[in-house]
Amino acid sequence: MDDCIFCKIIKNEIPNTTIYEDDDIKAFFDISQVTPGHTLIVPKKHVKNIFEYDEDLAQRVFKKVPMIARAIKESNPDIIGMNICLNNGEIAYQSVMHSHIHLVPRYSDQDGFSMKWADNTGLASNEQLQERADAIKKNLEG
């Protein structure tokens, strides 16, 4: 895609700090560096989000995540955890419409990164939960 910033980074048309690259992916530092070592893993094939991956592309991209995550963690003894995020759609905070996986090293609960999850325990009845599960299962069949 000609106007995609990640496609331009993949082609090295835009300066970037690459930490890993092969035929399927490029892993490079996010310019924002939410925490030191914040890395993006980007498939070289332009897909907008998780919904556009086929099984083959998913296998080739996602199998690299643990290897790169371990390398980041092992690079700095101060890293005590890591958030791995894949945002899909603007409502889910995706800002570049080329699928990318964030690896955000964690150093403490004061390192500049946070996530807030609502606790909706008990708001749905067991019957409502089963209806949701059945609707999802129906789309997994076939």
UniProtKB/TrEMBL annotation:
Its EC number(s): 2.1.1.-
- Name of the molecule in the record: HIT family protein
One Gene Ontology term from the biological process aspect of the record: methylation
Segments forming domain HIT: 5-113
Keywords (alphabetical) are: Methyltransferase, Transferase
Do the record's keywords include Methyltransferase? yes
Listed PROSITE patterns? HIT_1, HIT_2
| PANTHER family linked to this entry | ADENOSINE 5'-MONOPHOSPHORAMIDASE HNT1, HIT FAMILY PROTEIN 1
Q: Which GO terms describe its molecular function?
A: methyltransferase activity
Which top EC class is named for this enzyme in its record?
Answer: transferase
The answer, when asked if Transferase is one of the entry's keywords, is yes
Task: Map motif Histidine triad motif onto the chain.
Answer: 98-102
